[in-house]
Fold these 3 entries.
Entry 1:
Amino acid sequence: MKKIALIFKVHQPFRLRKYRFFDIGENHDYYDDYQNKYALKRFTEQSYDKANALMKDALARYPKQFAFSFAFSGTAMDQMQWYAPELLADFQALAAHKEVEFLAEPYSCSLGSLISRNFFCSQVEAHRKKLRAVFKKTPSVLLNTDLIYSDEIGQWASEMKFKGMVAEGARHILGWKSAHYLYAQPETGLPLLLRDPALSENLSLRFSDRNWDQWPYTVEKFLQAVDAEAGDTQIVLCIDYAVLGEFQPEESGIFAFFSALIDQVAQRKDYAFVTPSQLCKQTPVGDLHVPTPVSCVDEERDLTACYGNDMQRDAVANLKRMWAAVEKTKDKEIVKDFMYLTGSDHLHYMSTKWFSDTPSPRYLRPYDSPYDGYINYMNVLSDLSQRLGLD
């Protein structure tokens, strides 16, 4: 039997207002409330409302045959609580289904794994706590920001008592191996689920591209690719939830595609929808060594989109310098601001690479250039550094 795990990423970053040099030390209000409200409203109208309706209908029609998972950031939960409580209630109604699993992740989709092990673990624990409070769910599988993974991060996940972790099925770490099997972290045996990059990005990046040789993309073409895999295999699809309706507009047929996919898979005896935790109960086929970090971003599947130029490295160096003081402070507002400011989106805005990223809210770039993003961000960090007594 072929098993399909659908993982939908739900994330909204806290976008920064224009923060000038002369604001440093004078104004601690960093966030652009208008843009944050506008983006969430847009995503709700174009994507979330319609996608939730589709999922509820599928769960009602196939109560035992359909299952999926959310990777739901803490910042998305915060914004829905503040700006769109009715939307959050809609997600909570979905979460009430036992077939809907929630994965753990760093709270703000941060690059905590690049800053400090302690910070990374604190972000994951804060996210676990938030999930329990908002959705009454306790996650057992971890998904890091941008699917960043290495042997070391896998060891951290194991020590945090996770039952498995999702990583990118990058070709350069797999070699001749297939992404469609369960592997294990070499030292701890932590089960590793690997995203299928091609099938995931057929939906997230290429679905409405009329120049693509597989356009129009149909469920039949998707299942043909799955059927080409020999034996009992697993397909892990990890895409942004906003692919449904926002990144791929409704007129592209994306909702009809998912509705038809759910119908066909749920009705076939040789297929099954499963959750990541169900896949992690299997016996791994072998170890997978990942000595240097991989991610799901860009063609290179590395960290260069968020940590590849001098501006990004300088920003991360400042975050590392500040973390020791943040860890000691009892000022909850400073801790919250630091957590929001470590979100990966802020680093992606500084990227000078012009490849197409996997769609996410970062595509609504708020700056005219990566340099503008860097200057604005560093002004904010300078103010936070003063609040910590470092400058």
Entry 2:
Amino acid sequence: MTLYEELQARGLIAQVTDEAGISEMINNGKATFYIGFDPTADSLHAGHFVTLSFMKRLQMAGNKPIALVGGSTGMIGDPSGRTDLRNMITVETIEHYCNCFREQMSKFIDFSEGKALMVDNADWLRELNYLEFLRDVGTHFSVNRMLAAECYKNRMEKGLTFLEFNYMIMQAYDYYELFRRHGCNMQFGGDDQWSNMLAGTELIRRKLAKDAHVLTIPLLLNSDGTKMGKTAKGALWLDAKKTSPFDFFQYWRNVNDSDVINNLKRLTFLPLEEILELEKLRGEEINRAKELLAFELTSLVHGAEIAERAKEAAREVFKYGGSAGMPSFSLSEPDFENGSIDILTILQKSGLCKSKSEARRNVDQGGVAVGGEKVASISKLFTIDDCSGDGIVVRCGKKNFCRVFC
């Protein structure tokens, strides 16, 4: 099986401009390709996971990736798939976000000499002369064709700003500059980027009379069509400070049965033969595949040692036993009145509940347990001794746990 055939078998290819040419380059390690990342936060998230894994997979086969951080396009915001205008971000904040991205990407991509590049489109976009840009680049774009693009449809309903309208042209110019400066002959991205990416190939053809290629990757979706990587707390971040390794592990451990095999194929580096064997699992046995998925992805992001601790903590949580590695909260002596603290205060302070009234409802409904034993009364008290050492494991609902100690 060639690399391109494997990518197809893993469900990693949506649309291509020239299948024969692209497969030949990828299979023979001749592709210099880029994927763009607009810095809209100080961490990458699960939505970026599929593209990072894709880059790593191709680099392992000898192809050269270019990670493009959008120091300039991030100031505008991609309108694709959105119904509202993105919040404006300052230049200083964007530069901070770009630095955070660089650090995280290095866990996936080998940026040593000659193997990969990381570039910032601010290097060429921020210095452009507006009139020259309109004359040299704007003349190659048809407004009618741009307005027909899928990436603008949602925004058209509420009013597409001229700021956002420029995004396609700027992304096309990125591809042109990377082609010209670094010999970048291929662009990869999510399948919601198809129109933007085609604009780049057209600009290269018109200005340089050269052929360039694009390939889109299916977005990371749940089986019900919703975006994968959303939790009750928001996005599933790759930064351990924003999403703990335990929570990251638990997210993938608890995916729907119908999603686990697809995620193993698209996100992990396990051999397809092994995944096809896991696909035969039924009933409770599917949990083996889920735990393997969670371990593999947590290892990629946080390292095997941390992934192992998260796995053991998850198993302990399942048994309501030990608590090493799970989210924790430290109480101080002032939190204890007359040497004790009630369960409602613990639930609120630990963050398991937003308020004491929410905590009360959970206790009354039988949804709170400590050490595996259901808490029957809102008056339940715990002493400093109870919370000393490893502390107590508090569960609120079916899947929310916290180790509380002092």
Entry 3:
Amino acid sequence: MAQLWGGRFTGETDALVYRFNASIGFDKKLFGQDVEGSIAHVVMLEKQGIITCEEKDAIVKGLTQIRKDVEEGKLAITDQYEDIHSFVEAELIRRIGDAGKKMHTGRSRNDQVALDMKLYVRGEILELSDRLLTLSETLLTIMEENQAVYMPGFTHLQKAQPTTLAHHMGAYFEMFKRDLLRLSDIYKRMNYCPLGAGAFAGTTYPLDRAYTASLLGFEGPTLNSMDSVADRDYLIELLAALSTVMMHLSRFSEEIIIWNSNEYRFVELDDGFSTGSSIMPQKKNPDIAELVRGKTGRVYGALMSLLTTMKGIPLAYNKDMQEDKEVSFDAIETVKDCLVLFNGMLGTMKFNHKIMEQSAMNGFTNATDAADYLVGKGVPFRDAHGIIGRLVLYCIDKDKSIDALSLEELKQISPVFEADIYDAISLKTCVEKRLTIGAPGSAAMAEVIRLNRVFLDAYKNEHHKNGS
């Protein structure tokens, strides 16, 4: 049992206590970040005259070789060590001797683990943003290609007014746009370096914290050493943002599940993103959409777990905070997988344009426009509303859409109707009359698509700057 804190203790730690306390089973994921942070730390120590140039060179060379050996499978990270920091330091000392014992000068495991986790999360935010950008690109392409594809819009899951497939997809684009902006905000807010905070009260060594921060690509050092080791706000923010991403994916999945049903048939899923039944040969199940919907609860659970862990912890560091890692690692990987699979499903999904349009016509989605037509002819709105209500009842009885009624039938309901009613309530007219920005009319949609393209290009430029 390799430990960094054995000097104070004369007795052997109980094996169960050791296993319960140990974190190497999951924090080995931070191996690369631990080496990166340690290299920056010793470079700063040498610059400040705290260690010699020879010692710095030996430590950097040793750490670089350890990283290479682990990456190539020549060196295994085992549970002989309590955590990843113990493993790296013990292996370094074994290889280079006493010089390796100086690596930890002016540093605590508290600020070390705070740094490792920030470096890890920072990289994961960039990867999550990449996957959200890919999904947003897929959505924008669908919007560009379906500006004149009519479909029913819904409220209360009831057909309400006609819209376009581009307009409907645009609503999800806006959701994922906000998700991208949230991730960007979290990245900027968390990008300050905790290294040098020590256990919680700084150190007596003349560290240059700003220099270490610059070496690691941070905006600067954190400004309170207690908060530096006790802060997990950035993780809570990230898990909240990821919960919102999953909520958006779940809503979208729910619609795809409905649209894929025999009753709707708005979409057909690619064989690669659906499964069959072991007993019913006719089935084509939307498993990916259902799994994404199901895994949303898993990510919500991670957020609630960390919020509960942090709610009663006094300053500064407490071992409870070790519980931040497993739930965060799992949530991040879950969301990354969901984004990739959902994008694959969406990008290969076929939309049944004719069925969508027919559904809009048969669902009386043009009833509001028919009422507006009567108002335009001088009928008071409340009267027009009643007339169209009776007209819909007539259509239901005759199993016809409003468009399919003859002018004679229309006039039986109200003599105000004339031949121009058919153009007034066509799906094209109903959609095109809605010209305000954000509405489904073609001119408005074209402008929104242009603005969305500008947004994606600008976000990618900023994103690549952060990743460089």
